[in-house]
Structure formats: structure tokens, C-alpha cells
Design a protein that fits this description.
Helix 2 runs antiparallel to helix 3 and helix 2 (61-86) runs parallel beside helix 6 (253-295). A two-stranded antiparallel ribbon has the order 1-2. It has 351 residues and is mostly helical. The mean pLDDT is 80. Among the domains are: 15-140 and 255-305; 174-231 and 245-250, no CATH class. The chain has helices spanning 11-48, 61-86, 94-142, 155-166, 193-200, 253-295, 315-330; strands at residues 7-9, 306-308. It is rod-shaped and about 100 Å long. The longest helix has 49 residues, at 94-142.
Length: 351
């Protein structure tokens, strides 16, 4: 019975395989370390922006799984480089013979599974981010005025810092602020007729104005910031409400944050794909090198032509036999026919 996917490895190909594996293993370790950094950076960014994401949005799963997968890839690269280098010396290789087996199992089952899961999460992240930011930013805008409500005291500060740092205004634009009450009722004069008229002008009893918080102002504007009466074309001389970007941040925070986080997740996804490719090559090469050296007693320059393989001889037949036996076991047994009556035995003649 022949092994699965055998490969003949004479002396020179065995040496070149070990040398190439040493280089690939170090490359895998480098890419794994970079992927580890990218995963940590994305996790920190999501932690900082967690206030503006829906609580039910499972976006942290991607960097957490990617951290575990990249750590396994980093360990596989370091161990693989040591094993491939030791295989070139018959005196150094024996201690590594017991390490390669568990490494191949852990790298294939653990590292490969985690990488595939992380890649799937990276592909599904854009839709999850879109929904999470839509809901989270809407809640943040609604809580902006609640500076004295327990649990929401920092909502105003965090949203102002977000708009200033990311150069955005509102959820989808500055007009989002026109539809919510972002000034606390504590700072409104109930005796002011203008305040009373604005509150009574909508069925929800909110104080709505065509203005924005100061954090929406663009400091690069050559004129002082205009925050109120933005819908009135006659309120501010030489100001065109059709071009608010000359005075306010033009983009909404949803668009800005979505592009920022998608860029980070796209970079991480590309790093995970490269890590998966390198880890597959390293594990395949280590398996062929391990099986070839086992046939030579662990000596890479041993006499004769060694043969590397992925699975030992008889594995295919063993799986086939198990499958056939399972099929036979699932096949209904034919009904047993009733036993036929035996013909009566003739009596022996008497002597």
C-alpha cells in the first residue's frame, strides 16, 4: 500500500528543502509578528471607539481571533526555523524529532482553523461595522445633552473629542444636529419666548435649533465659526449655506469611522491571507522533510533515496474500509426466510 502524495527526495533536494524551509519559517515568523501588531492595533481602536458602536456588535471577535492565529503562526515559524536548521546536522536533529509531530498537529488544526475563522470574520466585518456604527452614533447624539445623567456624563466630551479628532460632524452630516435636542434643558430659560416657541413647535416638546456644537467647526476656516442659524441665508453675511464645508466639517462621523475601521480590517485581512499561505507552505515542507528523514534514521545526508509523504501507507485504504463498513452497517439487513421443514428421515432397514 503506497503512502498518500509521496515525493522522492534525493540528497540535494533534501538539503535545499531544509534550507528553503529555514528561510520560509523566518518569513512566517516575521509576518506573524506583523499580523500580531495589526490585530492589537485594531483591538485598541475598537476599544477606544466602543462608545460609538452598538453593544450587540461583535466586532472585537476579529482582532481577538487574529491575535491567537498570529501567535500560533509566530510560534510555528520560530520552531520551524529551528527544526529545519537542526535537520542539516545529524547531531542536532534528534531532540527535534519529538517536537515536529506536535508542531504539525497544532499548526494544522489550531493555527489553520484560527486563520480560516479570522479570514471569515474579516470578510463579514464591513456589514457588521456599518450596522453597529449606525446605531451607536445615533445613541451618542441623543445622549449628548445628558451631562448630568448617571452613566452618560462623559457622552458630550467623548463625542466632541471624536468630531475634533476625526474631522467629522453628526452621524451622516451636520444637519443631523438639527433633528435632536443637543442643549440640556438646564441651560434653557423657560421665560424666554423664543425657547418656549421652539419647544411648542414640535410634537415631542424638544428644543430644536438649526445649529451645531463647537466641535463641528473647522479650525482651518478663515472666518470665525458659525454655529447657529445655519439654515437662514440672510443670518450671516457672505456665508453660503450650500457650502458648509467652508465653515464646518463636511463628512459625517459614520462615513469617517467606517472608512477608518474598514481600512484597518482590510490590512489585517491581507496579512492573515499571507500568513495562511506561508503557514501552509511551511507545514507541508516540514511534513515532507520529517517523513523523509524518518526513513533515513534522522540523517539528512544518509545514503539512498528517501521518500517524503503527507500520510503513511494504508491510511487511504483504512479510511475507505471504514467508509465501506459504515455503509454496510447502514444498509438494512435482508429479511430472514423462514426455515424449511426438513424432510423426514427414512427408517433404516432392520438387520
Amino acid at each position: 500500500m503506497a503512502p498518500v502524495l509521496p515525493l522522492a527526495l534525493p540528497l540535494q533536494p533534501r538539503i535545499r528543502l531544509a534550507q528553503g524551509l529555514w528561510l520560509l519559517s523566518w518569513l512566517l515568523a516575521l509576518v506573524g509578528a506583523l499580523t500580531l501588531l495589526c490585530s492589537g492595533h485594531l483591538l485598541v481602536q475598537l476599544w477606544h471607539l466602543g462608545t460609538f458602536l452598538a453593544p450587540s456588535c461583535p466586532v472585537a471577535a476579529l482582532p481577538q481571533v487574529a491575535l491567537a492565529a498570529s501567535a500560533v503562526a509566530l510560534g510555528t515559524g520560530l520552531v520551524g526555523s529551528g527544526a529545519s536548521r537542526a535537520s542539516l546536522d545529524a547531531a542536532q536533529y534528534p531532540p527535534w524529532r519529538g517536537v515536529l509531530g506536535p508542531l504539525l498537529v497544532a499548526g494544522t488544526a489550531g493555527g489553520g482553523g484560527l486563520l480560516v475563522l479570522a479570514l471569515g470574520l474579516a470578510l463579514a466585518l464591513p456589514g457588521t461595522l456599518d450596522t453597529g456604527l449606525e446605531e451607536g452614533l445615533g445613541t451618542a447624539l441623543a445622549n449628548y445633552k445628558d451631562t448630568e445623567v448617571p452613566g452618560r456624563c462623559q457622552a458630550k466630551r467623548l463625542l466632541d473629542e471624536l468630531q475634533l479628532r476625526h474631522h467629522c460632524c453628526g452621524r451622516h452630516g451636520y444637519k443631523d444636529w438639527f433633528g435632536i435636542q443637543w442643549v440640556s434643558s438646564r441651560y434653557l430659560d423657560p421665560n424666554d419666548q423664543d425657547v418656549v416657541d421652539r419647544i411648542q413647535s414640535n410634537v415631542e416638546g424638544l428644543y430644536l435649533i438649526d445649529g451645531v456644537p463647537f466641535s463641528c467647526c473647522n479650525p482651518h476656516s478663515p472666518r470665525p465659526c458659525l454655529q447657529s442659524q445655519l439654515s437662514d441665508p440672510h443670518a450671516h453675511p457672505l456665508f453660503d449655506p450650500r457650502q458648509p464645508n467652508l465653515n464646518l466639517w463636511a463628512q459625517g462621523c459614520h462615513e469617517v469611522l467606517l472608512g477608518h475601521l474598514q481600512g484597518l480590517s482590510s490590512t489585517l485581512g491581507n496579512m492573515l491571507a499571507v500568513t495562511f499561505l506561508l503557514q501552509t507552505l511551511v507545514l507541508l515542507g516540514l511534513r515532507y522533510l520529517q517523513t523523509a528523514l524518518e526513513g533515513l534514521g534522522g540523517v539528512i545526508d544518509g545514503e539512498g533515496e528517501a521518500q517524503g509523504y503527507l500520510f503513511p501507507a494504508g491510511l487511504k485504504d483504512m479510511l475507505k474500509t471504514a467508509w465501506l463498513q459504515g455503509g454496510v452497517a447502514r444498509r438494512p439487513a435482508p429479511e430472514e426466510a423462514p426455515p424449511e421443514d426438513e424432510p423426514p428421515k427414512e427408517g433404516l432397514p432392520e438387520a
